[in-house]
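step 3/5: co-fold with 3-phosphoglyceric acid
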Amino acid sequence: MDISAIAALAPVIPVLTVDRVADAVPLARALVKGGLPVLEITFRTAAALEALGAIACEVPEAVVGAGTVLDEAQVRQAMAAGARFGVSPGCTPALARAVKEAGLPFLPGVQTVSEAMVLRELGFGLLKFFPADAAGGTAWLKAATAPLAGLRFCPTGGVGLGTAPAYLALPNVACVGGSWVAPREAVAAGDWSRIERLAAAAAELKRA
Ligand code: 3PG
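step 4/5: write tokens
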């Protein structure tokens, strides 16, 4: 599956920061059960790599990827752990080259029109718009529609259930990303039914 096909699976990609490996599988199962099969495990905790591997092995219904992928070494680690895609907050030429060479479906981050143009030249058609809320939100995406025709975005950063519909209504938005579907306190408490309910509400969101 390429990154566009993965983004088409659900309106929301949960951005997950996992502190305990033991939480990974029940968390993934709750999100998938709620209707969100595409999961991003951020590479920001010591548990992240093992958590990703556990989901890849034990939750085959999930399409699990690695987030906060910053360099080539992390691309290799993510793929070895079973990541089906990767996400980065921004991008560098070395990272773009590494994901292309490795054949990892990838969602590189951009915040400006020039960054989007560089990635377009490198062959990326779907970009993470990050940090979406702080960088101009729906106004930026609307303004970018005509000049960046053909590019689509996954706005992430400060997006919640209240603001997601306005993003998803835009023709150049493929899906949104966000951590709101898996609040850290709910994960810490093992409150999987709350997470399943949050996922179900997010899975109902309509796209343009
Ligand atoms: C991130 O990389 O932290 C994501 O952008 C999630 O942002 P959020 O916590 O504001 O949803």
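step 5/5: annotate
The longest strand covers residues 12-16.
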